[in-house]
Amino acid sequence: MKKITIAIDGFSSSGKSSMAKVLAKAIGYAYVDSGAMYRAVTLFCIENNMISGDVVDVVRLTDALPDIKINFTVNPDSGASEVYLNGRNVEREIRGMEVSGKVSLVAAIPAVRRALVKQQQAMGEDKGIVMDGRDICTVVFPDAEMKVFVTATPETRAQRRLEELRGKGDDKVTYEEVYANVCTRDHIDQTREDSPLRQAEDAMVLDNSHMTREEQNAWLLEQYRRIAAE
Question: Given a cut of 80, is residue 79 above it in pLDDT?
């Protein structure tokens, strides 16, 4: 089979990162969670007091971008790829509600998107990569051989996100808080001026509202085999 680029876009908490990881492992491709890169920048902003309410200090952040180094390193124990921010493992910190509540604000900043898109495109120069995010099909890899747009109802996504947080020990967050966060992120992601979330015209749609993980993983693998064999 030929080596291809696989781009997966979709709404927050639609499960696209989980399915992208499984697919990449199954076919021996590199995996990049582009959303984690935006989360890492958001964490940097929070730790350096660059966000006040819903306002990001764009000038300070733009000046700091050259000093923000994001890397993915495989954990030898779990086999999972984890995010490092300036040499520090931040995988757990970037998944919390504090970062989730601000990441769409940071991701909407053009300077941030330009900087990270450049890095992402460099990662995929040799193909053999699975990358998921909000603008992978439309901006990062518009010529990707396989494009998938993942969606699910807001209620389903909120419940999945709540279960994920519960599994990580966060027993204080409520369903209502998570649902509100999902809806807010949807609005910001779809209405931002720079690279808004939208379905690429040539992307396959995967609505996994009523699918098991096994079913969606099997669907993705089937599409990959079909496209890579062409």
Answer: no
Average pLDDT for 145-162: 96
- DSSP-based three-state secondary structure for 19: helix
Which pLDDT band, with edges at 50, 70 and 90, does 170 fall under?
Answer: confident
Start-to-end Cα distance in the chain: 8
Query: Considering only CA atoms, which of 107, 95, 119 is closest in space to residue 41?
Result: 107
CA distance 122 to 71: 13
Tokens (6 digits) for 68? 């923000």
Pair of tokens at residue 166: 């519960």
Closest Cα to residue 124, out of 144, 100, 102, 104? 144
Burial of 219 (0-12, 13-18, 19+ CB in 10 A): middle
Helix H or strand E segment including 10: strand 5-10
Q: Tokens 């910190």 — which residue?
A: 93
CA 91, 97, 100, 105 torsion: positive or negative?
A: negative
Rounded CA-CA distance 27/24 in Å is 5
